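Continuing the series of single-chain predictions for the mutant panel. This is the parent chain; the variants come on the following pages.
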Amino acid sequence: MPYIGKSPVGGGFHKLDNLTASATATYALTLGSAAYYPETANQLLVSLNGVIQAPQDSFTVSGSNLIFDSALTASDSIDFVVALGDVLGVGSVTDGAVTTNKIANGAVTAAKLAAGVQGVAGISSSSTSGTALSIDANNIVTTPEVPRFKSLITTNTSVPATSTKMPIRNDYGATNVNYATRTGTNYGGGFDNTNNKYVVPVTGLWQLNAHFSYFNNNTPARETELQIWVDGSVQYDLLWIGSHNDGNSYPDYDGTSGAGIAYLTAGQELELYVYTTESVTAFGYTGLSGYLIG
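Parent structure:
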């Protein structure tokens, strides 16, 4: 709408610092001794030897430099340079006027964030709805999902006095002996049910857990241990090895458990083996599980 009286001026108008002619065509523009950057040559009023110069024809600008179409001499006189307003000069921005669409993609970098920025309530995921990561008032970080798996054997398995690979599956469901109502876990992918192995999907530290449940009808004295094989060979350093020497009467049921933290790389293959000094039958809860912790 029109104004009553003089319309407000929207932009700065400046007489720039004096320039001294010399044997060059290029001159640095300053305002208060600080570099001044015109948006265009059409923004400047330039007087040379008492004659107003035509922008684009007699001079151009590049950054903060005024460039005449030919070199001057010390006998020339640059009378003045006036900037006719700052292009789109804005005194202040209305609250709420800067929206997401007005900020270029990638324009906000870590360097533009103040140290110790507070109040990160949640970070959303590009592939799922809702909050993918949150930090509460007590600096507790929570995530809804991490790569993880849980598997059990699908059938009672005879274990001779040697290292024996367990037929573990994460989709055991109704086929799992004695535990038809239980379900497996394979979040993030990676479990190879055909070959009874887990292919690590993400490099990092993993919490691994294993259990060997068995029935012995032969001897009360035996030793058992859990073995996690990585890429086809046993890795004793990945998991605490449970050793069990049972002096109780037999037949009986028993078990060996182990847990540990291992640094695994994406693509490595994990398999569960058990070893016993006497033949037994693996059943029920014999299985391997794990989850990424960092």
